[in-house]
Amino acid sequence: MFEALFGNESAERVLVYINAREGGYGREIAAFFDASLTSIQKQLDKLEIANILYSEQQGRTRIYKLNPRYALYKELKQLLDKVVEFYPPDIKKVLISNRRRPRRKGKPL
Q: What is the tally of structural domains in the chain?
């Protein structure tokens, strides 16, 4: 949708996902958008080199987040929040819900 602005569709997906979920890793982003893992990883590397993202190791997984020291951090965050508003309602709802741990055993839905 906004790939012309971000360079390509993978870059848009990576930035939107990481902004909405406040972090993410390559396989998780690729699975969410049903995209190629290779293209997502290339974008993550490219954005980290550009200092837009930073990464930290959690166990065996590298988690990427928006870099708060990036010169246009506030503006980029506002733009990405606005981009999410244009996503279809079903994708938007799942994207914004940030549930990452399993539900407690026996807990009612």
A: 1
Q: Give the DSSP H/E element, type plus range, for residue 63.
A: strand 61-66
4 has pLDDT over 70 = no
58/101 Cα distance (integer angstroms):
15
CATH no. for residue 92? 1.10.10.10
Q: Is there a domain that residue 104 lies in?
A: no
For residue 80, give its domain range: 3-96
Which amino acid appears at position 83 of this protein?
Answer: V
Is residue 108, in this structure, part of any structural domain at all? no
Is residue 92 a contact partner of residue 84, using CB atoms and an 8 Å limit? Answer: yes
Residue type, 30: A
- pLDDT tens by residue, 33-84: 999 999 999 999 999 999 999 999 998 999 999 999 999 999 999 999 998 8
Q: Which residues of 74-98 are buried (b: 16+ CB within 10 A; e: fewer)?
A: eebeebbeebeeebeeeeeeebeee
